[in-house]
Amino acid sequence: MSRIAYVNGQYVPHAEAAVHIEDRGYQFADGVYEVCEVRDGALIDAPRHLARLWRSLKELRIRAPMGEAALRVVLRETVRRNRVRDGIVYLQVTRGVARRDHYFPSDATPPALVVTARAHDRAKMDAGAEAGIRVITVPENRWPRVDIKTVGLLPNVLVKQQAKEAGAKEAWYVDAEGYVTEGGSTNAWIVTQDDVIVTRPAESGVLRGVTRTTLFDLAEKLQMRIEERRFTVAEAKAAKEAFNTAATALVTPVVAIDGALVGEGRPGPVALGLRRRFHEFAERD
Ligand code: PDD
């Protein structure tokens, strides 16, 4: 079946979908994005993803390409046209197409919107994630505004590739004081020896992950102890469990950090339990 992409008002064959060479996303990474899980044909936590998108746009003073309700229609329609049951929908908004110039283009320049959807094999993904992954740690080297979900992901690309070449799946950034911030494309968590689930406060040096926010709901409803505070690499290595969260990873157990096994070096019951129960609490659209 041929894939379809939404590009600036039109649904076009994915293979032919293109943006202009002077799109500011292409020239300056002057744009923002969201990735939303699709499960059984439904968008997961769409209101939270759209709320964050609106925040990112506002922080960068990029106009919204359309209203939230219309954007939801485009997301659903892209999923439908690609017949995605389980997978992801990706959306990207840039400051539009204009002659290359660092200054913002005139207000008459419309923002550019692209939406794509892609299926994945859920059983295979679950099997991979539930086996656990390895992470490496790397020095934090990104700009301070990581709270904005911009398409400027070069530092993330480089550390993820470094992780891959080291036989790991994710890289955890570590700040100058030795505290873990987050992964290259995930939020980072640990479970302490006394069963407290810990992640870094969203206000400092991390993206406020939607999966992270929903996990707080989940942990509270399940009456699990959950805490927002910073943790060091040493604390993570000595933890009972560690895991990552993202729309693309859900809850993925981490079994080794820089080669040191976490706990017994196997996915733990807290991470696996949260992964399996996640969709009871996430919002379906
Ligand atoms: N990444 N931190 C970073 C740096 C991320 O890029 C992501 C998501 C997250 C988790 O956010 P959420 O739970 O809302 O997916 C945290 C997406 C999936 C990506 O870049 O593909």
UniProtKB/TrEMBL annotation:
A Pfam entry, by short name: Aminotran_4
Gene3D superfamilies per the UniProt record, alphabetical: 3.30.470.10, D-amino Acid Aminotransferase, subunit A, domain 2
Record-level GO BP terms: amino acid biosynthetic process; branched-chain amino acid biosynthetic process
Matching entries from InterPro entries are given as: Aminotrans_IV, Aminotransferase-like, BCAT-like_C, BCAT-like_N, Class-IV_PLP-Dep_Aminotrnsfr
Q: What is its EC number?
A: 2.6.1.42
Q: Which reaction does it catalyse?
A: L-valine + 2-oxoglutarate = 3-methyl-2-oxobutanoate + L-glutamate; L-isoleucine + 2-oxoglutarate = (S)-3-methyl-2-oxopentanoate + L-glutamate; L-leucine + 2-oxoglutarate = 4-methyl-2-oxopentanoate + L-glutamate
List keywords of the entry alphabetically. Amino-acid biosynthesis, Branched-chain amino acid biosynthesis, Pyridoxal phosphate
Cofactor(s) demanded? pyridoxal 5'-phosphate
Taxonomically, which superkingdom? Bacteria
A single Gene Ontology MF term assigned here is: branched-chain-amino-acid transaminase activity
Q: Which GO terms describe its cellular component?
A: cytosol
Pathway terms, separated by semicolons: Amino-acid biosynthesis; L-valine biosynthesis; L-valine from pyruvate: step 4/4; Amino-acid biosynthesis; L-isoleucine biosynthesis; L-isoleucine from 2-oxobutanoate: step 4/4; Amino-acid biosynthesis; L-leucine biosynthesis; L-leucine from 3-methyl-2-oxobutanoate: step 4/4
Q: What class of enzyme is it?
A: transferase
The record describes the protein's role as:
Acts on leucine, isoleucine and valine.
Q: Which family does it belong to?
A: Belongs to the class-IV pyridoxal-phosphate-dependent aminotransferase family.
NCBIfam families referenced in this protein's UniProt entry, alphabetically = PRK06680.1
| Name the UniProt record assigns to this protein | Probable branched-chain-amino-acid aminotransferase
What is the taxonomic lineage of the source species?
Answer: Bacteria, Pseudomonadati, Pseudomonadota, Alphaproteobacteria, Hyphomicrobiales
